[in-house]
Amino acid sequence: MTIADELITLRDLLRFAVSQFSAARISYGHGTSNALDEAAFLLLEALSLPIDDINPWLEARLTRAERERLLGLIEARVVTRKPAPYLVGRAYIRDLGFTVDERAIIPRSYLGELLLDGRLVELGMVDNPLAAGAVLDLCTGNGSLAIIAALEFPNAEIDAVDLSADALAVARGNIDEYGLGDRIQLAQGDLFAPLKGRRYDLIVTNPPYVAAAEVEAFPPEYQAEPQMAHLGGEDGLDLVRRILREAGAHLNPDGGLLCEIGTGRAILEAEFDLPFTWLDTEESEGEVFWLSAEALR
């Protein structure tokens, strides 16, 4: 008798997965923060079930083929230490799904939450979402923030820039999936270089911002992602500094910059005499700032 013969329901597989993940001391942070949530996501996504609640399905009896496939994914998560989204090829920001693979970082930016919950409008940083004509997603990765921007600013044309041709290939697939190819233009290059002086009503950016020593100490889950999507120099802020110096030239007079920087707030505030507005999210404090075009001129 094999394990597949003993584990019959989704509850059985969930319990087994949590036990395996806990025993293996795997790392989280790619959409989940603990063994139970990681196991639930992996199993539900693999079964093409809604990922928001596993409870309605717990007593569902699985076919042998389903059980064997799920057991294979559980084993792969433990043995390869690849994040669950890479194993199932899907990641989510709120209820928006995106295709992912090892060519691009797994989307989990705090900026997605800020764009989707209307906070920028509520705080007066964006006066009217319908009036936004041009938005830039700098360091777009798999294109998720560009897609969210297109959905939240329905009249805007979106430019999405990344240095990685591989990441842009993943982004193209996601943009096509959402039917936004006529509104989102992809460009390969180093930050603002490919934009030829274009100006925007809003720039959103989640650049690489992890310090070199932290990247060196990454657990395997984070090592599975492209290093260039994380590495931000000695203190993590090399690209953030460049963005602060260059963004003003690419903003319309009433525009602004929304930037995620990780834990470098104290360094930036000491180095730049700028009126940063720090925006907290459900899982972050002082890791995202807003600056107006006027402040950056």
Please report the total strand number as a whole number: 9
Question: What's the shape?
Answer: elongated
Determine the number of helices (DSSP H or I, runs of at least 4 residues): 14
Q: Give me the Rg, rounded.
A: 20 Å
What is the CA-CA span between the terminal residues?
A: 70 Å
Percent of residues in beta strands: 15-25%
State the share of residues found in helices, binned by percent.
25-40%
Parts with pLDDT < 50 across at least 5 consecutive residues: none
| SSE order | HHHHHEEHHEHEHEEHHHEHEEH
Main sheet? 7 strands, mixed
Task: Please state the structural category.
Answer: alpha/beta
Notes on the structure:
By secondary structure, this protein is an alpha/beta fold. It contains 14 helices and nine strands. The strands form two sheets. Strands 5-4-3-6-7-9-8 form a seven-stranded mixed β-sheet. A two-stranded antiparallel sheet has the order 1-2. Helix 2 packs across helix 3 and helix 2 runs parallel beside helix 4. The protein starts with a helix and ends with a helix. The model has no long low-confidence stretch (mean pLDDT 96).
Summary keywords:
39% helix, single chain, 7-stranded mixed sheet, two-stranded antiparallel sheet, alpha/beta
